[in-house]
């Protein structure tokens, strides 16, 4: 399965949702997650993310392991999203900033 990781937080570009053939993205206030049981491992979303926040579960960068559980948990409670939206106005200024996990809104 594919996993949305920390750099999506407060960037939320949503380019990823447009290409997913099974519409398995779910939307929170400042972050998106992938439903692990619905993702078919097509890998289409990975190159679409301008923030490079999407990885295969077995290729997660060091320190991003917690996002496996975060995606599984929040995809059960957040609403589905399948159409691209405008990103937050300050998205670019948050791209690449460390320590965004504590800013995740649920
Ligand atoms: Fe959707 Fe494919 Fe990305 Fe899984 S890997 S979330 S199925 S686009
Ligand atoms: Fe997030 Fe990248 Fe999608 S920033 S919303 S995973 S395009």
Structure, described:
The structure is a single chain. The chain has 106 residues and is α+β, with helices and mostly antiparallel strands. 17% of the residues lie in helices and 11% in strands. It is built from 3 helices and 4 strands; from the N terminus they run βαβββαα. Strands 1-4 form a two-stranded antiparallel sheet. Strands 2-3 form a two-stranded antiparallel ribbon. β2 and β3 form a beta hairpin. It starts with a strand and ends in a 12-residue tail after the last helix. The mean pLDDT is 98. It binds iron/sulfur cluster and FE3-S4 cluster. Iron/sulfur cluster binds at residues 2, 19-20, 22, 24, 34, 39-45.
Keywords:
binds iron/sulfur cluster, two-stranded antiparallel ribbon, binds FE3-S4 cluster, Alpha-Beta Plaits, alpha+beta, 4 strands, 106 residues
Outline the secondary-structure elements.
Blueprint: E1 2-4, H1 15-19, E2 25-27, E3 32-34, E4 54-56, H2 66-74, H3 91-94
Antiparallel strand pairs: 1-4, 2-3
The structure holds iron/sulfur cluster (SF4) and FE3-S4 cluster.
- Poorly predicted residue ranges: none
Structural class: alpha+beta
The portion of residues assigned to helices is 10-25%
The biggest beta sheet is recorded as:
2 strands, antiparallel
Bound molecules: iron/sulfur cluster, FE3-S4 cluster
CATH topology descriptor: Alpha-Beta Plaits
Q: Can you write the helix and strand succession as a string? A: EHEEEHH
Head-to-tail CA distance between termini: 22 Å
Q: What sort of overall outline do the alpha carbons produce when their principal axes are compared?
A: globular
């Amino acid at each position: 399965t594919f996993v949305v990781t920390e750099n999506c937080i407060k960037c939320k570009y949503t380019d990823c949702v447009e290409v997913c053939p099974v519409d398995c993205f779910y939307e929170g206030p400042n972050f998106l997650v992938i439903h692990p049981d619905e993702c078919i491992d097509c890998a289409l979303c990975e190159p679409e993310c301008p923030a490079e926040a999407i990885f295969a579960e077995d290729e997660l960068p060091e320190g991003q392991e917690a996002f496996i559980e975060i995606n599984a948990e929040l995809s059960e409670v957040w609403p589905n999203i399948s159409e691209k939206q405008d990103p937050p106005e300050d998205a670019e200024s948050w791209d690449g900033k460390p320590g965004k996990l504590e800013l995740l809104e649920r």
